Predict the structure of SDR family oxidoreductase.
Amino acid sequence: MSLQGKKALVTGGSRGIGAAIAKRLAADGAAVAITYAGNKAAADATVAAIEGAGGTAFAFQADAADPTSQRAGVQQAAAALGGLDILIHNAGVAEFSAIGDDTDETFDRQFGVNVKGLHVGTRAALPHLNDGGRIILIGSVSGELAFPATAVYSATKASVAALARGWAKDLASRNILVNTVQPGPIDTDMNPADSEFAQQMTSFVPLGRYGKVEEIAGAVSFLAGPDASYITGTALTIDGGAAA
Ligand code: NDP
């Protein structure tokens, strides 16, 4: 129980990677709050799974792209937990189109959730975040590698890694450690392993398969825990060797 007594907020914890992170941090002993955009049933299922395993969990609707909503979600989570030790920015959206098909709306939605949501959420969390805390951002291997029709999404995830590097320096005096986890293709609703696109993606992965959400959650657990006490301002890519 390496996170016993810790208080963690996971944005976008209703499904996919975020739900797996919430469950893993709770299994490690943390009390957990999650936010979700609109899927209350999935959020309730994450909370029920954690509580069914003997943990503590809360869920709050908060649109990461809407600053007022994002700030309220963070404040509700901090109030329910009685403070924060661990902040996981996982909520994200992907809308793939080539530059000729991009629109102002697809650009704004992706930067709104994937980048501005992190900026607003971190600023809202800081007054509640204990010294010695952890902030972990879920970026993407796409922040380092270009694939066709993913330029804007890739730009958001390169920005995520840049935010982590800067915040690591800003917050080092409080011993708050800030890192990015960069998944490769992981089997979720966003990127199902049985899609046509998946066959193409898998051909770029030396391990020859999609990753599982638990394989990301395990790395997040490590970065949130005591063994990562000298790791800040870096990115851990978990992609089956795709970027190697
Ligand atoms: P999913 O689409 O499966 O789940 C997305 C989660 O984010 C849901 O909980 C959803 O809530 C929430 N969410 C979406 N938009 C918002 C919003 N505006 N405000 C608050 N919450 C929101 O995605 P994944 O689990 O696959 O992805 C999680 C993260 O991992 C993202 O940042 C993604 O970019 C990143 N990633 C994923 C990869 C993959 O291959 N799957 C690869 C690399 C990075 P709700 O259920 O209410 O809709």
Summary: The helical segments are 16-27, 40-52, 67-81, 104-125, 151-171, 196-202, 213-224. DSSP finds seven helices and seven strands in the chain. The chain has one domain: 7-238.
